[in-house]
Structure prediction request, 322 residues.
Amino acid sequence: MIIRVRLFSLLRSKFGRSVVDVETDRPIPLRELITQVESRAGPGLVGELIDGEKIRKGTLLLVGGRNVIFGDGLDTIVDGTQEICFFPPSGGG
Amino acid sequence: MDRYDRHRPLFGEEAFERLRRCRILVAGAGGLGSTVLQLLARGGFHDIYIYDDANIDLPDLNRQLLYDTRHLGRSKLEVACEVLRDINPDATLHGVPERITASTILPDVDIVVDALDTFEARSVLDDLCHGRRIPWIHGGVSDFFGQVTTFVPGVTQRFRELFGSMPSLEAAGGVHTIYPPVVTAVASVMASEAFMLAGGNTGNLLTGRLLTIDLRVNAFECIELAPPR
Prediction:
């Protein structure tokens, strides 16, 4: 299956990619997906999104239109049926 | 001929009358607020509440279109009301020289527009609007980027549910760098949401959708959001 990840805003400009496709033969946890995305988009992505064992504050990881911090976090299982979006939202006005 | 002739036909008389009767609150008269307020006042919103407690500083002038060099050091609220009255004397402006806090009692309004500049302030606004069941239009900007969505209590996820816990401005480095055109782009979409919501054309609003704007590459993209839990 193909799991498609959309990168936005600063992530898009830092890694030069708006979409990263990851091919896998099984559903995987979000943590593993992020590592796979880094291997395709370039080094540094994991550090942008994860701080130790936690999602980095200021980062929005949406799976199926929901913020994963209110669900299973980095253990959220993804399988290619959900829309997956990573970005730091903009806070200024 | 009147001042609304060029856009009233786009709404129809009935919808435009709904817009005219709509009471709207704009929280913040800075970058987003400057453009939103001008568009609302020019567009025929009659009752506009404005909350802001800041003064005009030199770095504001790159994007805060209500203000110019003559206004440096003055209250944003005071100048905004003066300028908006000149733009459209027909609008009734209710200026409140305060920041919105948890103890703010919102006036009786139909729509709130978030032109704030921190996630903490927006979380407070989320609580206030959710408690009063008032739909509110969120916009945020930084660098070349921005996002817009419209929260409707009971219909969409709440701000807190969507964004979770975001860092304070201080923790994020203390100041946002902002490309001026992205502010007016985001603010224009926010104002359009207000026009549509007020006029009753709610079918294509950004409710349950997050519009992201990236002017570095001219990308306008929507993310579908799940319904509230």
